[in-house]
Amino acid sequence: MTIRTIIAATLALATSAQAAPDDRIAIAAKLRDTALASNPAWPLLVDLTDSVGQRLAGSEAEARGRAWAKAAMQKLGLVNIREEAFPITFWQRGQESARVLGSNHSLAITALGNSGATPAAGLTAPVACFDTLAALRAAPDAAVKGRIVFIDHRMTVTQDGSSYGINGGVRRAGPAVAAQKGAAAVMIRSLGTDHHRNPHTGSTSFPAGTPAIPAVALALPDAELVGRLCARGPVQVHLVSTPTSQPGQSANISGEIPGSVPGEIVVLGGHLDSWDIGQGVFDDGAGVAITLAAAATIKASGPQPRRTVRVVLWGSEEIGVVGGRAYGEAHKQENIVLAGESDFGADRVWRVESRVAATGLPLFSEIAAALAPLGVQPQPGNDSGGGADVGPLAALGSGVLELAQDGTRYFDYHHTPDDTLDKVDRAQLDQNVAAWTTAIWLAASDDRPLRTKP
Ligand code: ZN
Ligand code: ZN
Fold this sequence. Notes:
Order of helices and strands: HHHHEEEEEHEHEEHEEEHEHEEHEHEHH
Number of strands: 16
CATH architecture of the largest domain: 3-Layer(aba) Sandwich
CATH superfamily of the largest domain: Zn peptidases
Structural class: alpha/beta
Radius of gyration: 23 Å
Bound molecules: zinc ion
Distance between the termini: 47 Å
């Protein structure tokens, strides 16, 4: 090609209102390779991490995260930037420590989100040990009442993260089960796969009428210690955990590349809030940076898409998917044809999954073919859950796009002080951006129906 034809081709690409069907695939390949070679995800993630840091839901830091997100969207050329507020319960950890009485063992703990508080001076109680949540459920109240319940379930490493799904109930429901049986407090083995003395936080919940008792996670080495001590004989623990809860506020942020045909929207995004004990990089600064960078790549290097591309950065995911639920409720009348979220770290995408109307399956064949050079395989079936924040949209009928990431090391860092920038592999981060850019472009340049409900 001569310089003149290159310029002509570039101008044609930049000014054509809408890609012809045959061009969509070629443009997808071009966008994929452009994103792989250069995209703004890494500088965005560095800037979010260094200038804002951890972004606990409801905190002043989460609000600064929103200001950062709006400025980033503006800089990347997104328009119709919106902030939509919603109320939350603002939970903050207080003092936390634990030690085994009659020994010199202190335990590495972290309070679980939404958990209640011990007295300021702490509480001392005998420990009731259970291997699993099922064993706790089966126990008589008398074996639990007034005690600190310890649940020693074990999570294993899986590429797809399925072990988190299987074991997640221990953290989400275990404290409430113990509270209903009269427990004084709960300690769980962290939902994690590392063997550092880093406990993994995360949210729990107490149904109405169930007292919010103190609930903490133990680092894996500490959980193993307590398990061994339980096998030797009675164990007493002194526990201090003094979190507070108060009414607060969070918000969702969104920005768009308007489509050439109004009325059809493709949503992609991640969540802005994070836990307080790390820096919110893997969870979920990476998803924020990946999806912003994908939209920026389409905006800067592609023709105008047919459907509107909207990046949504949800607030308050960690403390109960409050942002995702609020977004679904506020946008239930909108024609969001497809939604996807990136919320599983920064390691490579290895699988593409869908849940769309039958008319959308040929689109997913195109997406799978375009992602194959990135090492991404299609997942058989058409029943993706999509993730926490898109769940409410999917329940309303939006189609689901899921780009599943390699979770082999995700639960080494998840919800720990080790969720820091140095853990991110930039090449894998860029592969994520390339995958999202490609899939979102193909969906947004298409017109085949995707919704599973009208
Ligand atoms: Zn997350
Ligand atoms: Zn999380």
